[in-house]
TrEMBL record, chain A:
Residues 4-449 form the Acyclic terpene utilisation N-terminal domain. It comes from Agromyces bauzanensis. InterPro entries: AtuA_N. This is ABC transporter substrate-binding protein.
From TrEMBL, chain B:
Pfam families: AtuA_ferredoxin (PF23544). It comes from the Bacteria. InterPro entries: AtuA-like_ferredoxin_dom. This is AtuA-like ferredoxin-fold domain-containing protein. Residues 4-101 form the AtuA-like ferredoxin-fold domain.
Length: 460, 112
């Protein structure tokens, strides 16, 4: 029975490179996939592109591909990534230039376009798409229309399959759904077609993709099993071996750190998947309630009985829009009487904000170590802690107001209790809020641009 | 006698927008059966009062002895605009682990 070996090379922008290099060298992989994008990332990249139209992709991918491509080319492994962000063609150009310098003649690099809807908002609305907010249907897009930074559709595997059919060794997409980075290669390898699909198999592919798409986070990273995880600093990233019958095994390379067992896989199957019988991705809907998870050896877990349903007609679109500024400031309060001093500092800051007439949209005081994480669920300690960090955050309308908030927190160190310590100030940050919505898939066609490294020629 | 959820299950949390989800993985069949009775949206709403402002759903995954808890308006507006330090709600799993469960449920006595 045909089996396809997929490795996960990255779970987020900023992930470690070493595990991907190990997988490329020793994983005997058919494909190495990479996810670099979080919900906010596309808006940040769009801004970078507006400042410089040769940018807008994840800058890390250029040195990463420079390191990995000579290895994967020799091993016959193909790479699929969503690090092209808002400028896949520029990313592909940069990767091509390095491949050319490395003498990798014949290597084909593909860029996927079509997910960027930033300049199509008016057109979509004219076509009758409401762009209603999925989290709050009462809100109209009109209230943010003049503050939109970026709008991108989570797209599926069609263009990945096309690029692989065209012989691409590196496929660079933008807002590919994380799962598509792995579902696309499986569909290409097994010859599956959306027009005549076995949706249980596609559901299985989406499920397996979900398990490995955050890389080390299914291998004992961020884990309830942390006490039993060996050498997380040498974390081995996951390998999924997907069989033609829709079963799979998850494993990692021998000699690496991390842990794969039923618990680390279960905790990742549940990670950010919400309604488990309706895990919606652009390529299909996975049903996570039918599958079975079994330990199948040391650091090997098998997955079976996975299922799915036909892909949704609507694609999720994430719109980013500017929404004021956040100021953050902090002081450290020493013993004795830390609790009373923190209360006094809060009182001082509130009074100062009244005096200068600053009314934030939202204002928050955290006593770090007591209630910063638990908020209203925290219990006030019976005894004074040795130190308290008083963290003050505010959501305000402008950068100027954010700076003013910082100044008023600084004042507490000169007019407040003795010993109140301050450090380097934190910079205000502009808020890009997110507006999730749905758009019919037929309005979001994607396409492939492919380039090939020329054969090296002797320099005359 | 009361137990904590962490006596019966592992937890891990994540985010999407302003939605926090907590995966609850029971240690075994008995723990799963106890939590099926006790881990309800109503009790979670009371437990997370003031922290979670929207509706709460609890989904069952019997083949994994697990539950998925999905809580709306739970992260102070979502990662990009919340004032919380824990922008993505990774620590919500720890809060959940203290959810109280009557020990009698696990001992086989269903009378509370």
């Amino acid at each position: 029975m045909k089996r396809v070996r997929l490795g996960a090379g990255s779970g987020y922008w900023g992930d470690m490179l070493e595990p991907a290099v190990e997988l490329a060298k020793r994983g005997q992989l058919d494909y190495l996939g990479f996810d670099f994008l979080a919900e906010l990332t596309m808006s940040l990249l769009q801004r970078a592109k507006m400042k410089d139209n040769t940018k807008g992709y994840i800058p890390d991918i250029v040195p990463w591909m420079r390191t990995l491509l000579p290895i994967t080319h020799a091993q016959g492994t193909k790479m699929v990534l969503n690090g092209g962000g808002t400028n896949c063609v520029a990313a592909a150009d940069a990767v091509m230039a390095d491949a050319s310098r490395a003498g990798l003649s014949g290597v084909r690099v593909a860029a996927i376009t079509g997910d960027d809807l930033t300049d199509r908002i008016d057109e979509l609305r004219a076509a009758g798409v409401s762009l209603q907010n999925m989290e709050d249907p009462s809100r109209s897009i009109d209230e943010i229309a003049d503050r939109i930074v970026a709008a991108h559709a989570y797209i599926g595997s069609e263009s990945i399959i096309e690029a692989l059919d065209l012989g691409a060794e590196v496929v660079i997409g933008g807002r590919l759904a994380d799962s598509a980075v792995y579902v696309g290669p499986l569909m290409h390898e097994f010859g599956w077609d959306f027009g005549n699909a076995d949706w249980d198999l596609i559901g299985a592919a989406i499920t397996v993709a979900h398990v490995i798409e955050c890389a080390g986070i299914c291998c004992g990273g961020m884990s309830s099993q942390w006490k039993n995880v060996p050498e997380p600093w040498n974390m081995g990233f996951p390998i999924a071996e997907f069989a033609a019958d829709g079963t799979a095994q998850i494993s990692k390379l021998p000699g690496t750190g991390g842990l794969i067992n039923q618990w680390t896989i279960k905790e990742h199957l549940l990670y950010e998947t919400h309604n488990p019988s309706d895990y919606r991705m652009p390529d299909g809907i996975a049903d996570l309630t039918t599958l079975r998870v079994n330990d199948a050896g040391s650091n090997v877990v098998s997955l079976s009985d996975m299922s799915g349903r036909e892909r949704p007609e609507m694609l999720k679109v994430q719109i980013g829009y500017t929404d004021g500024w956040i100021a953050e400031a902090r002081v450290l309060i020493p013993f004795p009487d830390t609790l009373a001093k923190a209360d006094r500092c809060e009182e001082i800051i509130r009074k100062r904000l009244d005096i200068v007439g600053l009314t934030p949209r939202d204002l928050r005081f955290d006593r770090v170590g007591i209630d910063a994480l638990a908020g209203p669920l925290a219990r006030r300690p019976r005894r004074d802690p040795q130190e308290i960090e008083l963290r003050v955050t505010a959501h305000v309308d402008s950068r100027e107001e954010a700076m003013q908030l910082n100044r008023e927190v600084t004042h507490v160190t000169t007019i407040g209790p003795v010993g109140t310590a301050f450090g380097a100030p934190l910079r205000p940050r502009e808020v890009i809020a997110l507006w999730p919505t749905l758009v019919p898939r037929e309005l979001i066609p994607t396409s492939v641009v492919i380039e090939e490294v020329a054969s090296s020629v002797a320099i005359a | 006698m009361w137990l904590s959820l962490s006596d019966l299950a592992y937890t891990r949390s994540g985010d999407k927008g302003d939605v926090s989800n907590v995966g609850v993985m029971a240690f075994g069949d008995a723990e799963y059966a106890a939590l099926r009775i006790w881990l309800t949206p109503e009790r979670l709403r009371d437990f997370f009062a003031g922290f979670v402002l929207g509706p709460i759903a609890v989904y069952e995954l019997p083949r994994m002895n697990s539950f998925q808890v999905v809580m709306q308006k739970a992260l102070g507006g979502g990662a990009t605009r919340t004032l919380r330090f824990d922008e993505t709600g990774k620590s919500v799993a720890a809060l959940m682990s203290r959810f109280p469960v009557p020990a009698s449920l696990l001992n086989g006595s269903e009378t509370l």
